[in-house]
Specification:
The complex is a heterodimer. By secondary structure, chain A is mainly α. Chain A has a single domain (about 10-210), classed as MetI-like fold. Chain A contains 10 helices and no strands. Chain B is α/β, with parallel strands linked by helices. Helix content of chain B is about 40%, strand content about 20%. In chain B, strands 1, 2, 3, 4, 7, 8, 9 and 12 form an 8-stranded mixed beta sheet that branches. The termini of chain B are far apart. Classes of the chains: A mainly alpha, B alpha/beta.
Chain lengths: ~220, ~350
């Protein structure tokens, strides 16, 4: 059986990390403040908004990919940017997947912060901004968890990555899409090997973050 | 968590990302010129592109970005201006694409063969079929009677388009085919290799391109599947290159796209295609207009109804190669329907 490695596994792995990492940061930067806003502020329709956010946990990656494809296709409204089939497009598509997760988990984490803490913060006469920061600090573990789950979803994702990235050798080929390619060619054992790389990489990232948490660095 | 710690963590995360990004980009050989080509999975998965493209890339100092999808999706990408050039195998859809003003210079460059693949015991008797049409009729008759199964690609691929055209030639139009009973006609909507694996599991028939079939045999995934019918001109799989309309889409790299078309149709490009041998078979036969090949192919006039001039000619190179295949029970050239 001839198995030819016609691409650089290290490069593919790094691109996976880069795309997932950027999408996680972007998705957290948008989702966490949004979640805090929804979680801490009282307003009409809050319950409905929360339900919608939780429902979006199941947002199908392939739909996110299709949406980004349509937006950034040359025939689409943002086609002039010319970012289709680049890592940037992949990051955007995966950011769409991360936002509901980070938003939802932040809402839940903020809600879990003890009511008494909130009351104390208020009674101390701090400014609203300070009290928000205090609550966020209390909810910190949950926020980190939100980002981690977002990262987990990104690095394991294949539908959107394939659709808007195009699995171009040396450019938009990531671990999941290359596993698909190898499987399609019947190179099951090689695909399995790459799957192992993916698992190890994903677990290493989580292990590292967990370590930081235990050392109370995170 | 202290603020200083937060800063440390933030710096660490940013550093890791920056290093991955830098490494990814350094490892990515950035070339000055780029050609973006949408093609079908068969040309990529067979290894043909990895074999021929480096020659073109070094000659023109460029990089070809290959996006391998189904023919339908490739044409859609061309229509939307997302790629510069197409290499596809779906004649009827290509004609519509060109007629619609989405592309120009449609040029045939090579062909390979579709084969009808079935289980060892050949319950539908397709080995005795006189033509591809006859084989499909036998599969239908035995399928509806509960003796045989067929797994269809049922996706936007050129292979599915070919399958539909054969069903249509024996009186089953697309709607009728889509409504065939699930009892015998499976429509998974998956890639060729996966469909072959399903056939192995289900003792079913399918229509496959020969390259994917050989590659699956090579990795010993389909020990019980055989080619039961091949060589009929109706099973010819013609590939063409189409330039995406550069009048509609100004960003298209039309010079490089045209260079590619000229190169792949040239004797150098055609010879290179011809020299690609994998799994013990020459997988693609070059037939660009004007190419001095052993197999003189008639002009690219009537899409979808190619005359198989190789029929009955024993000196044809790919016929020899095919005959080597021990699994090929129906030699090419036998029982042509002349469609």
């Amino acid at each position: 059986m001839a198995l030819e490695v016609s691409y650089d596994v290290i490069q593919v792995t790094l691109l996976s990390l880069y795309v997932s990492g950027c999408a996680t940061i972007l998705g957290s930067a948008i989702g966490i403040p949004l979640g805090a806003l929804i979680g801490l502020k009282e307003f009409g329709g809050k319950g409905l908004l929360k339900t919608i956010t939780y429902t979006m946990y199941g947002f199908p990656p392939v739909v996110s990919g299709l949406a980004i494809y349509y937006l950034f296709s040359r025939a689409g409204p943002l086609g002039s940017f010319g970012i289709l089939f680049t890592p940037t497009a992949m990051i955007l598509a995966e950011t769409l997947l991360v936002i509901p997760l980070t938003t939802g988990i932040t809402i839940a984490s903020v809600a879990e912060v003890d009511r008494s803490v909130k009351e104390t913060v208020k009674s101390l006469g701090t400014t609203p901004r300070q009290s928000v920061l205090t609550v966020m600090r209390e909810a910190w573990v949950g926020l980190v968890m939100a980002a981690m789950i977002g990262f987990g979803r990104c690095i394991a994702e294949v539908g959107a990555a394939y659709m808007v990235g195009g699995n171009i050798k040396g450019e938009t080929r990531v671990l999941t899409t290359v596993i698909m390619l190898e499987t399609r060619q019947g190179h099951f054992d090689y695909a399995l090997g790459l799957g192992l790389v993916l698992i190890v990489v994903a677990m290493a990232v989580f292990f590292f973050l967990r370590l930081l948490q235990e050392k109370e660095l995170l | 968590m202290k603020q200083s710690q937060m800063v440390v963590v933030a710096v660490a995360v940013v550093a890791i990302l920056a290093v991955s990004a830098a490494a990814a980009f350094v490892l990515t050989n950035e070339e000055p010129k780029k050609l973006r080509m949408a093609t079908t999975t068969s040309t990529q998965d067979s290894g043909l592109l990895d074999y021929i493209l480096p020659t073109f890339e070094s000659k023109y100092n460029c990089k070809v970005d290959v996006i391998a999808v189904g023919s339908g999706q490739a044409l859609e990408m061309g229509k939307r201006g997302d790629v510069d050039v197409l290499m596809v195998h779906s004649p009827a859809a290509e004609q519509i694409f060109v007629d619609g003003g989405h592309g120009t210079n449609r040029t045939q460059i090579m062909y390979n063969w579709f084969v009808i693949v079935g289980p060892d015991n050949d319950p539908a008797g397709t080995r005795n079929a006189t033509s591809a049409k006859d084989a499909f009729q036998r599969i239908y008759d035995n399928g509806t009677a509960g003796h045989a199964k067929f797994v269809s690609r049922s996706d936007g691929s050129g292979t599915y388009a070919k399958e539909l055209s054969i069903w249509s030639s024996i009186g089953y139009n697309n709607t009728t085919v889509a409504a065939f009973s699930n009892d015998w006609y499976k429509q998974p909507g998956r890639g060729m290799g996966e469909v072959l694996d399903m056939c192995e599991d289900m003792n079913a028939y399918t229509l496959s391109d020969d390259a994917t079939y050989y590659s699956r045999v090579d990795v010993a995934l389909i020990p019980h599947l055989n080619i039961t019918k091949q060589g009929d001109s109706a099973l010819k799989n013609q590939y063409s290159v189409i330039l995406v309309n550069s009048t509609t889409w100004h960003h298209i790299n039309k010079t490089l796209a045209k260079d590619f078309l000229d190169w792949i149709s040239s004797n150098a490009g055609q010879d290179l295609i011809k020299s690609y041998v994998k799994y013990g078979h020459q997988l693609f036969t070059p037939n660009a207009p004007g190419y001095a090949s052993a197999t003189a192919i008639t002009g690219f006039v009537d899409i979808g109804r190619f005359e198989d001039v190789t029929a009955g000619t024993s000196g044809v190179p790919d016929a020899k190669l095919m005959a080597k295949d021990m699994r090929a029970v129906a030699p090419r050239g036998e029982a042509m329907d002349g469609a």
